[in-house]
User: What shape does this take?
Amino acid sequence: MDNTEGGIESAYELARERFAAIGVDTDAAIRAVDDIPLSIHCWQGDDVKGFENPDGELTGGIQASGNYPGRARTPDELRSDLEVAFAQIPGRKRLSLHAIYLESAKPVERDAIGPEHFEGWVKWAKAQSVGLDFNPTLFSHPLSAQNLTLTHPDPAIRSFWIQHCVRSREISEYFSRELDSSCVMNIWIPDGDKDTPVDRFSPRRRLVESLDQILAAPSGTLHKVAVEGKLFGIGTESFTAGSNDFYLAYAATRKVLLCLDAGHFHPTESVPDKISTALQFLDEILLHVSRPVRWDSDHVVLLDDVTTAITQEIVRGDAIQRVNIGLDFFDASINRVAAWIIGARNVRKALLQALLEPRAEMLAAESRFDATERLALLEEQKSMPWPAVWEYYCLTRNVPTGIEWLTRVRAYEQDVLSKRAPAQLTPQ
Assistant: This one.
């Protein structure tokens, strides 16, 4: 493909004609994909270290592998890295923060965090015209050492984590109010057991009680609360208190969002199928797009069958306004800024592909029980010139086309990242 401006525009005109012939308006698809917010996770930039205790060890079944140079060590470094990444990613963007990314001149316990510790992030978000999402951090802390937080049998420890989540709700409300955009606050806990527990009922009963207390706190109504399940993790291989079944029931009965993380299921399970299921009972869901390799390993998102199937399910079900899409991976084996860009651009590409389907024609064929035409339309779509539409989309949004973004990242790596202290070695 000719990647000059004229070549991209010429290719787009031909692609527009091809898509128009099957009833697809490419201009409308570009406008639609550009307007879908994508929440980009801060923790890719520093291997989930945060600024509470950057030299601490990750716990809770979380592990970032690799030691690529240039890890962000301060809030300003992380924000600088994010700005470089955001400039290479078209479309509306949000930033998802974890509680450990607070800014404070002195140590602050997690049950005492407040909006004042995130004022720098709000100021930055306003300057960047992005929304903020939030996550209480219930791992990598002395009181989560047993992989028990909201299910802990000790009422004092449970109370600590409940208060942390309540404080996180207050911060989420602050984000929503200051940025005039609803913050999604996602609760994930590492609670479980390495081996088979005798009693599964009590931990889950305590989890219900803890979550109910968190939701009962008068923390405002502008933000949204989500709960995220998981199949298993390191140290919780045999039992996870907050399973997807548990949280689906909880979300449906408490009217909160269910978070579906693409890496938190058995490899044979279909995440797209869960989207249309959950939305029968919930007004909205949160989606974390990640890439598992046999388990929840959080690899950089690819433009693969799973990613495209997820976005197809959202678009085909007319659920764009009901699914809050975010990224969740952390790869320290490659340039961290490039990882953000690759993953985010792939999700945006997958959304564009889904929006370029002849949805009306496919639904019409299906309503006639014409499986032949439906299959023919689905297969022909795979060879349609969607890359020409993507290139034109990037060009018109002043975002690098093709692989041009990598040149910018390499220059930033040479000028900025290479001058930072080496990252700590972590297991490969």
User: Anything to note?
Assistant: The chain has two domains: 1-24+359-419, 37-355. Residues 16 and 26 are 6 Å apart (CA to CA).
